[in-house]
Every structure is written in C-alpha cells, then in structure tokens.
C-alpha cells in the first residue's frame, strides 16, 4: 500500500502558497484602502439634460420597433463573427454596443434619439431583467456538483487559485482606481471586493459553447475547465452578494425601509440553506414525475418559473439582488441529465434569440466608450485588461502546472477560464445599478469583458487543436488523481 501522506503534504503546501498567501495580502490591501477617499466621477452624457428629438413612435409601437432592430442587429453581427471563428455571444455583445451612444449615438444621434429615447428604456430594461432572471436560473440549473467531484483535488486547487489570484490583483488595482473611478458614496471595501469579483468570474455558458465547438467538452481538459468554472461562478456570485449588501448598507443605494446588515446576511444564508435542502427535496418531485411521464410538461415549467420568480423576490426583499434568488432556484433544481436537457431545450431558443440580445442592447445603451477620453484613461483601460488576463489566465495556468499538468494544457485551461463574456456583463450591470462603479469604469470593464472573450477562441485553436487535445488527454487525466 502506497503512503499518500507525502502527496497530501505537497497538496497542502501548494494550496497554502496559491490561496492562503494571497488571502492574507488581500486583507492588508483592504486595510490600506480604508484611508483612501472616492472622488466624484465625470457625469455621463446620458445623464445630461439634452433636448430630445420629437417622438415619432411611443408606447408599444416603439418597443416593438426597438426589439426588431435589436434582433436584426444581433443576428447580423453574430453571423459575421461566427464566420470569423468567434461564438455568437461576441457578436451580440458588439451589436449591443453598436446600438448605444458609443457608435449609433455618436455618429447618428438623431436616429438614436428616435429609436432609443431615454424615457423609453424602462420597458426595455424590464424585459432584459426578466431575461436575466431566466438566464441565471438556467446557469444554476446547469451547475452540477458531480462535475467538481469527478475532477477531484485538481479542480479544487486550480479553481480556488483561479479565483484568489485575479481577486487579489483586482483589489490591488482598486487602490489606483478608487479615488477617481468608484461610485460617489461607495466604501473602499465594497469597491475592492467588487473589482475582485469582476476579475474572478468565468462565463460558464460561453465556455461550454467554446468547448463544444472545439470538441474539447468531453476531454479531461474540458471537463476540468467546466468544473473550475462552476466553482468560480458560485464563488464570484457569493462574493458579489456580499458586495451588494455592503454597498446598500453604506448608503450608496440603500432602499427605503431596507433590512439591517445582520438581517440581510443572516437571512440570505438561511434562505440559501433552506433552498438547497428542503427546496431541493421538493423540486426533486418534478424529476420523479418527469421519469413517470417521460417528458417535461407545462405544469412542470410553471412550477419552476414560479419557484424562480418567488426566489428572486425573496432575495430582492432581503436586500441582496433578485438575480441571486434566480440562481439559487436553479442550483436547487434536480440535476438528472435528461431532465436538465429537456428544460434547457424548452428555454434555450427563446433565451438566445430574444431575451439575451435585449440585455446586450440595454448594456450597450449604458456603455459610453466616448467617456474614456485622453491617453491616461486609455492606459488605465489597457491596465485593467492586462490585470484581468494576468490574474485569471496566469493564475489558473500556474495552479494547473503546480498540479503536474503539462504547460500546454495548463495554458489552455488558463485561456478557457479567462473567458468572461455574458457573466461579466451581468456583474457589471449589478455594480452600476448599486452605484459601486462609475460609468467611465463601467465602459472600461465592458471593453475588458469583450477583449478577454475575443481572445479565447483563437488562442485555444492555436494551442489545442483537436489532434493535440486527443494526444494529451491521457497525461491530463493522470494528473487529476494527484
């Protein structure tokens, strides 16, 4: 019998070096940042009082026109980027920015004023928020704990390191950005934690699509990436929940009649535990019925949707955010492969074709790249991108190499986990809504999300074509049991 103590001792040392030391450094950064004060960011052009053009459309006709324009733009740009080897979601992100003040508003302001007058965006926002709730529910539904269990210790060490490294660098970057690019009343702690969470996230759905297109989904490399991304997303959303609570408690966007901090934190933890235990057992009855009937019925869909909306309402009332409730409802749902696939099949087309493009468009309407003016601000934008790549890609690759994964596969894993995409945009919109970041920083972070998503496919194609991936799978699989 082989003594496993040396291997276990090495694992502890690696974990302490990759995770423990950065966590200690993070506390030191938060302590130093307490002495900083936030400046007032430049006001957005969208917030300025300007004379609006006469309304040619209003009400339902205007909303329908907006949806038609958004869907056409999303499909056209998506088709173009797919031919360039990029996933559809990249095209939808670019289409959303093109319809906003950065391009359409800058070069055809009269057309932009007619199509997207500021007073009409509330309806578009409402539809996009409903789409986001459904999307977060489906993300939670797709997260299966068995992916993590199957990958063993490698997934735990790599995923934790791929969170801590970019989180630490994001907090360090917050020391530079807080005086000029933070929200007006946000504390440094909330701002630094938000920057860390934003740097740490991985776009789970986009990653899965890229792995599928590159035929890496069923390989050990792809499976390990999915497991790490699952842990990353859960961790990032938990951290973001704390950021929302701290920001609202500090008065940045504290809702009238909001709960005290202790009630929000305690209530959120208790609710999440209740959903993952009692709620999970109740929802598993849907899976039993699915096995008896052999298909997903409309009643099952109705139960899941009511559960998702009610869960979102509870977390919003607790003072966290409705998106967390939708995510928890999905995470608590049954995980049988046939059941999950059937639910995703029902929702995927509507999500991809209609609801998500509306969210991208609304994000694009809030993104004003023209606010990034001067070489100094563009250097800051470049620094944000560099920090994001160094923390996520570099941290993940080093952690993978420390687990005896060869350098090429470790680099591929780092590139995959560096994909931010839609999940990053969701987090950024939450940060802008609760007043943690300014509109200038929002625009910079959107550019970072685009850059890190755009680089994934070409770099993976360069480092891990299908033939290479097949040749190295055995070596990667052997390292997982270390």
Counting H and I runs of at least 4 residues, what is the number of helices? 21
Secondary structure: helix percent: over 70%
Low-pLDDT regions: 1-5, 42-52, 467-482
Which value, in Å, is the CA radius of gyration? Answer: 22 Å
Number of domains: 1
Strand content: under 5%
Output the CATH topology.
Answer: Na+/H+ antiporter like fold
User: Looking at the structure, what is the overall shape?
Assistant: globular
The number of distinct β-strands equals: 0
| Distance linking N and C termini | 16 Å
Major sheet description: none
For the record, the CATH class is: Mainly Alpha
CATH architecture: Up-down Bundle
Topology pattern, helix = H, strand = E: HHHHHHHHHHHHHHHHHHHHH
User: Helix/strand-derived class?
Assistant: mainly alpha
Mean pLDDT: 81
Structural account:
By secondary structure, the chain is mainly alpha-helical. The longest helix has 33 residues, at 261-293. The protein is globular and about 70 Å long. The chain contains 21 helices and no strands. It has helices at residues 5-33, 59-83, 88-98, 104-107, 109-115, 121-142, 145-151, 153-181, 188-200, 204-213, 220-249, 261-293, 298-318, 322-332, 337-366, 374-402, 407-417, 421-433, 439-454, 456-463, 466-480. The model is unreliable at 1-5, 42-52 and 467-482 (pLDDT under 50). The chain has a single domain (59-480), classed as Na+/H+ antiporter like fold. Helix 2 packs across helix 3 (88-98) and helix 18 (421-433) packs antiparallel against helix 19 (439-454).
């Amino acid at each position: 019998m082989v003594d496993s103590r040396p291997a276990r001792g090495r694992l502890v040392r690696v974990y302490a070096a990759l995770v423990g030391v950065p966590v200690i450094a993070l506390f030191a950064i938060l302590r130093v940042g307490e002495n900083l004060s936030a400046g007032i960011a430049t006001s957005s052009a969208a917030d300025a009082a300007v004379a609006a053009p006469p309304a040619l459309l209003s009400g339902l006709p205007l909303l329908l026109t907006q949806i038609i324009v958004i869907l056409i733009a999303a499909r056209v740009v998506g088709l173009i980027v797919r031919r360039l080897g990029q996933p559809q979601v990249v095209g939808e992100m670019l289409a959303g920015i093109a319809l906003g003040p950065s391009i359409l508003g800058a070069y055809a302001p009269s057309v932009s004023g007619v199509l997207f007058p500021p007073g009409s965006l509330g309806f578009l926002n409402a539809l996009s928020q409903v789409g986001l709730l459904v999307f977060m529910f489906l993300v939670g539904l797709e997260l299966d704990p068995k992916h993590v269990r199957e990958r063993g210790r490698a997934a735990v060490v790599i995923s934790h390191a791929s969170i801590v490294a970019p989180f630490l660098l994001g907090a360090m970057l917050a020391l530079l950005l807080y005086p000029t690019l933070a929200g007006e009343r946000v504390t440094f702690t909330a701002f630094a934690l938000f920057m860390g969470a934003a740097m740490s996230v991985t776009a789970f759905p986009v990653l899965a699509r890229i792995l599928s297109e590159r035929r890496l989904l069923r390989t050990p490399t792809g499976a390990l990436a999915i497991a790490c991304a699952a842990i990353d997303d859960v961790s990032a959303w938990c951290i973001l929940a704390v950021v929302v609570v701290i920001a609202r408690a500090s008065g940045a966007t504290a809702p009238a009649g909001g709960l005290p901090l202790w009630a929000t934190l305690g209530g959120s933890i208790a609710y999440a535990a209740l959903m993952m235990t009692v709620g999970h057992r109740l929802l598993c009855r849907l899976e039993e019925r699915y096995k008896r009937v052999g298909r997903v019925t409309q009643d099952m869909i109705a139960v899941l949707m009511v559960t998702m909306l009610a869960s979102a309402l509870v977390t919003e009332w607790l003072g966290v955010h409705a998106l967390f409730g939708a995510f928890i409802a999905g995470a608590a749902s049954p995980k049988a492969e046939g059941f999950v696939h059937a639910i995703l099949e029902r929702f995927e087309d509507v999500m991809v074709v209609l609801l998500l493009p509306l969210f991208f468009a609304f994000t694009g309407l809030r993104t004003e790249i023209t606010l990034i003016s001067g070489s100094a601000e563009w250097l800051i934008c470049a620094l944000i991108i560099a920090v994001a790549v160094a923390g996520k890609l570099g941290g993940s690759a080093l952690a993978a190499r420390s687990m005896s994964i060869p350098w090429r596969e470790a680099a591929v894993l780092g590139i995959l986990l560096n994909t931010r995409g839609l999940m990053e945009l969701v987090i950024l919109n939450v940060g802008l809504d609760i007043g943690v970041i300014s509109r200038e920083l929002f625009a910079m972070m959107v550019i970072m999300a685009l850059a890190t998503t755009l680089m994934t496919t070409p770099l993976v194609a360069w480092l891990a074509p299908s033939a290479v991936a097949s040749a190295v799978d055995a070596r990667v699989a052997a390292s997982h049991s270390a």
